[in-house]
Amino acid sequence: MQARRAHVDPTPPSCRARTRALARWCLAALLASAPAWQALAAQATQPWLDRSRSFEERAAALVERMTLEEKAAQMRNAAPAIERLGVPAYDWWNEALHGVARAGGATVFPQAIGLAATFDVPLMDEISRVISDEARAKHHEFLRNGQHGRYQGLTFWSPNINIFRDPRWGRGQETYGEDPFLTARMGVAFVRGLQGDGPGADAPANPRGERYRKLDATAKHFAVHSGPEADRHHFDVHPSRRDLYETYLPAFEALVKEGQVAAVMGAYNRVYGESASASRFLLRDVLRRDWGFQGYVVSDCWAIVDVWKHHKIVATREEAAALAVKNGTELECGEEYSILPNAVKLGLISEAEIDDAVTRLFAARMRLGMFDPPGQLRWAQIPYSVNQAPQHDALARKAAQESIVLLKNDGLLPLSKDIKRIAVIGPTADDTMALLGNYYGTPADPVTVLRGIREALPQAEVLYARGADLVEGREDPAAAPLIEPQYLRPAPGSSERGLRGEYFRNRDLSGPPALVRVDAQIGFRWDRGSPTDNLMARGEVGPREAIPNDGFSIRWSGQLLPPVSGTYRIEAAANDGFRLYLDGKLLLDRWQPSERLRADSVSLQLEGGRAYDIRLEMYEADRDAAVRLAWELPGAKPPFEAALEAARQAEVVVFVGGLTGDVEGEEMTVNYPGFAGGDRTDIRLPATQRKLLEALHATGKPVVLVLTTGSALAVDWAKQNLPAILVAWYPGQRGGNAVADVLFGDVSPAGRLPVTFYQADEKLPAFDDYAMRGRTYRYFGGEPLYPFGHGLSYTRFGYSGLKLDRERLGAQDTLRVSVTVRNEGARAGDEVVQLYLAPLEPRRERALKELRGFQRVHLRPGEARELSFEMKPETDLRVYDDAAGGYTVDPGRYEVRVGASSADIRLSRRFAVAEEH
């Protein structure tokens, strides 16, 4: 046997010792950094977690491991979890029209139409950044609490950039008005702020240098969609190509090309025979081929159902789902895409086409940082306390101030703060709904106009009377005043004021309450948010005490303390069911679900000085929630008479009326005189209010009209007879303060009309006619009641020195325009300088004039500033040429017009476009 040779290590002993020490150190380091090694291991087996790859590569790697059924499920808004792949559930549906909506407490800014009235792009930048901060903070708080539901994600279906072509459209309030240029400028600013790309933004990037998105914005509803609401699931629109490309498409094009908007939402209706949510022309040819859109398309909610059920473009669900995906709609809000696996089996669509759609969706989620450690993204560190922060509240007030339009002033405004007695009258003076419009969050402390005036005049007597219902035939749940805290106590002998509220996480008041607190008054409105969300935002309760958005119930109990003896009318209202007891006796019982806030009342004799046990119970099934407990005291006059009496006693009357989101809005089932399906059939102030307004004027007291509205109102009589008219729109959570700031001169108004106000007897084109002829200031040849861009001030502005840097424009030239504006009045104020372009030798039918620039500028008394604008032929002078099938620039003479509105032109200069175009 051969002897085994001994192994001899040639390494010197000192080196061997150092090597063993280094090995021990490495082992310790490896153990200490186990999470990092775990991450590396995960990246090897789960490449979609590898941040060194592109977002698209990561998404493709994830989709590759999914079954066909899992892919189809991920193409619906409520995408389920895929636990084996570590994919959490995600609902794509979220809203942020003028603040984070339907997710509980959030700052509520003026409705979109009011934001447009500011004509202030930098302000929109600031507002959208605030909204995105609150949205990010809310999303990560939801995640920390294991919540992945609707209105809790990072994909927001805002803004609405449809053109408000007709004042009858109930959803026009959601838009930026009737002008494509204004809509584009406000829309681009909103999108960039929401997505983290606004001025001064420093969006984080992945290791490959690809920028993350803060949120996804969605441009909707692509592309020809503005009513009628009642027909939106059926009608087919065939606009001229000129109207399509010059009116309906430009804002969408700007949001895609300039704003880099993440998503586009299709509409319900057909366009040229195709469903807008399954249109090859709109989604493939225009959006992707012509504009180079790289994002994803989502259908409007249940619009894919319409493809087969109402439009009857195809016969089956499978055909509808396949058609929508093949034509470019990757994400469905609805359930039809659940049938996609069967559509693949039938040969209607390939799995490869499904893969492409799902990969786009997951790339979007990757770009939002959803599959990265939270610590990698600074937006995930935004504290929840930013929601409704004091500085956000202040910004909401500033936005409301800037949105208010002074239509008329015969010298009555601003009112003196030395007024001893003022009457505030009207159906929206003390109605929170008049602040909110639609698609809103829950403000912590909304200020109505009545409250705003009272806060502005603490030394004055402010008389209030509702006076009239909002519209005829409406069961008005806000007619009686809320029972004030001094007449309520939570228990016998208690020094607290209000009622004891017990909040339950179920509909039947069962089990122990999740939260118990004393509520001073019972008057709440939660837009798809839970009752405790606004308190959570202020840090007054925590997640463990939270009540769900739907399926909750509340019991308020305590004692009612009538101040005098007599007949009281006690009113309760809720959405959904409610019951009211007094001394153990059931007085009102409406324990059934309801689609809207409804009221019931009872009249009974009560003794002054006696305490009555009172109990109000309510439950919420789903959607919006609201509740009120109100009364009318003995001897209360009928509302109309009470209003006239208040007016006679006052030095001046402020009438606050108009509309609310209860009567104008999205596809409503309840109709009133002058309203149909959420749209309007009469553009005048409702008859109930006209009658009251005329009676108030007849008292001889000066009357200021303050309009809450989301659309143009024909107030011809008021223009002829009243000294002052303000439009407050739906001004958001601090709207009442903002109106008072303008009424009493703390702020000089400078809002401008983003829509034309027509006269009451104007014969408008048919509502369902989408031709632009005769519509909006661009094509309307008549005399408006108030023109687009109109708005007065408490000071005066002069214009001078309009200059063009050239008189003849070539193909590659840029026209530079400058003008000097001076504040010629005695007080500081804002002026909105507007630049319009008009063709002097039109070669084809085209707009009479078009907005091509605007700037809002603040000037002190005597201060002057030179402003400059730029125009480029290929964007600002283009028109659609039917023969060429595309845009062209017509040669000839044009006029630049600069002024304070589309009708108030102060200066003009002409230039020519060379024939070479």
What distinguishing features does this structure have?
single chain; 917 residues; alpha+beta; Rossmann fold; Jelly Rolls; 7-stranded antiparallel sheet; 24 helices; 37 strands; 26% helix; globular; disordered N terminus
Helix content: 25-40%
| The CATH architecture of the domain at 403-478 and 637-743 | 3-Layer(aba) Sandwich
Q: CATH superfamily assignment of the domain at 403-478 and 637-743? A: Glycoside hydrolase family 3 C-terminal domain
Radius of gyration: 31 Å
Largest sheet: 7 strands, antiparallel
Structural class, judged by helices and strands? alpha+beta
Give the total of beta strands.
37
Question: What oligomeric assembly is this protein in?
Answer: single chain
Instruction: Kindly report the average pLDDT value.
Output: 92
| Top-tier CATH class of the domain at 403-478 and 637-743 | Alpha Beta
Q: Report the β-strand fraction as a percent range.
A: 15-25%
List segments where confidence is low: pLDDT < 50 over at least 5 consecutive residues. 1-11, 13-37
| CATH topology (level 3) name of the domain at 403-478 and 637-743 | Rossmann fold
Kindly report how far apart the N and C termini lie. Answer: 102 Å
Shape: globular
